[in-house]
Amino acid sequence: YMQPFKPAGLFGGARLAKFSSPMLRTAPLALRRKGVNPAKMTAAATEKFEFQAEVSRVMDIIINSLYSEKDVFLRELVSNAADACDKKRFLSLTEGKGQEDTLEIRIKADKEAKTLTIEDVGVGMSKEELVNNLGKIAQSGTKQFAEAMKAKESGNNDVNLIGQFGVGFYSGFLVADKITVITKGFNDASGKTYKWESEAGSSFTITELENSDEIKGASGSKLILSLREDAEEYLDDFKIKSLVSRYSEFVNFPIRIWSSKTTYEQVPDEEANKDLKEGEEPKKKTVPIITQDWELQNTQKPLWMRPPSKVTPEQYEEFYKSTFKAWDKPVTVSHFSLEGQVEFRAMLFVPSQLPFELGANMFDENSKNMRLYVKRVFINDNFQELCPRWLKFVKGIVDSEDLPLNVGREILQKSAVLRVVRRRIEKKCIDMFADLKSKGGDDWQTFQKNFGKYLKVGVVEDNDNRQDIGALIQFPTSAFPKNASTLDGYVSRMKAGQECIYFIPGEGRAQCEMSPAMDKVKDSGYEVLFCTEPLDELCVMELKNFQGKDLVDLTKDEVKGIDDVADQKTKKEEAKQVLEKVLSFLQAALGSELVSKVEVSLSLRDSPAGLAQGQYGMSPQMQKYMKARAVSMGDSNDPDFLPPGMPSILQVNPEHPIVQSLKAQVEAGQDGE
């Protein structure tokens, strides 16, 4: 029974119990019948095998499948160079070895040779380290270094190493068909220089370079990429600068790029001065002078690494404008860090103007409002999971060592760590908005004008923070002719005995003020909020209550706190009997397509009648919105696709003269015209 399942290939280490073969499941019973102990037989027959890999195929996967875009190769290689410099700095401090070299990274493109060289004055590598670190795929020398420092109890808090997967080096093959590494190790007593070379196949070569001056300092590495024809764009120093600025702007060590600079000088124009007469001023011409030199690229400092008390408002503003390419001034800033099981630092900015990209689409996926860094190296700015969409307008930076990334460091994997970071960002944003609200003034009003709709989306979509966000939203109100009011402001002005927060949906303030539903609070003098946008109505429907007070729509047929009074029900029944013929006449005249029913309302005062909705019905404004949305998303010519209309309830005022006149005509047998 064992022979057909002899361990081999991919299943070499698998336990036999995992197979689903019927023959295998019945094997133990058959063996016992023959007097054989199946447990002993299994143990004797089990062999252990190491997984094998086809190196060239693995390299192909790393090069062509691990990264979504070629640009990231420079991020990975610069990060490796930064790690090498950090290791050298750390070893110099902890092991007492002198450090005479200036730690920096240099990048130079050679258009004639079609090579891109990345050089660092870091720790370098010995021959053995070249074999182990570059010859073994997915072995991270940086990770091993950090673990060794931890094992020595040296306290590696002062070293900030980036690498962790051991595959970043091979990203160079995204753009190169050959990689050459020339290196001299910091800990190599022989002081020899070696050259490592590979063409992305299954092999590499290592050569000792005698009397070589390729590495000028005590140690370091020079990485030479022989670029492919389709990657010659990386020979342009402007392209290299843009990538360094995007991915490695906040790396600890100076990054210098060999750049061309054009200046213009005035020189004598020999051609124009041939016929120059005596006493005339020589004519000049402007000629371009092209010079090349090392240009420092990463001049910006990671401001989020400083304590908030050490950062001035001017520095926040400068950082905001530089990092997010913004021209406006941030209204407020939140600068904080979280320590514990999850550690990260963050800076959040509220713009003073609506970002341009959100003008046409308030949830534009290309707005890239939140930038994620891992150990000060830029990873991505399009992580939807890092921040809910109702905070799309908030600009921010998150720098963490704990966020779970895929091996290509481009995709943020869902985990408990991510949920912690997301909740903290949400909480800090709400606190930031609340602080802005407490200060009031023009900044708060500007914030509401630009981003108030985002807060209402937050009420609709954020179940965990709904009440906290609800304290920040504003609505036009009958209490103020021009200014809006927050819900807590409404609650503070409520009349004695008032139990609910009342609102009316409508297309604009004027329509709300003219609504017959306003009659329902005329005697009591209750304040009414005006929901003038479809989003307003969705917001109050989701919020339901605030500080223990129900939000009640005055346009409903039964209004809590007004129509549910005990003596009102009795009076309503009496009025219904008196106007029974009028109600029947109106129902027949209008039909069920226009009104679902006709009833008496004792809460109407100046209006003869009004349209109301059932307790679970939508206002006419919301129905229009839903129909328009359905048309925009589907076939407007297909009536079956459109949401069905919802007939309203016609409420009549039994005391109004028009209703009384209609009653007299109906009872007299007239048609009411």
Automatic annotation (TrEMBL):
Transmembrane segments: none
Residue numbers binding ATP: 76, 80, 120, 125, 133, 140-141, 164-169, 409
Coiled coil: none
GO molecular function: ATP binding; ATP hydrolysis activity; ATP-dependent protein folding chaperone; unfolded protein binding
Keyword Nucleotide-binding: yes
Gene3D superfamilies linked to this entry: 3.30.230.80, 3.40.50.11260, Heat shock protein 90, C-terminal domain, Histidine kinase-like ATPase, C-terminal domain
Superkingdom to which the source organism belongs: Eukaryota
UniProt record similarity statement: Belongs to the heat shock protein 90 family.
Keywords: ATP-binding, Chaperone, Nucleotide-binding
This protein's name: Histidine kinase/HSP90-like ATPase domain-containing protein
PANTHER family with a match to the protein in the record: HEAT SHOCK PROTEIN 90 FAMILY MEMBER
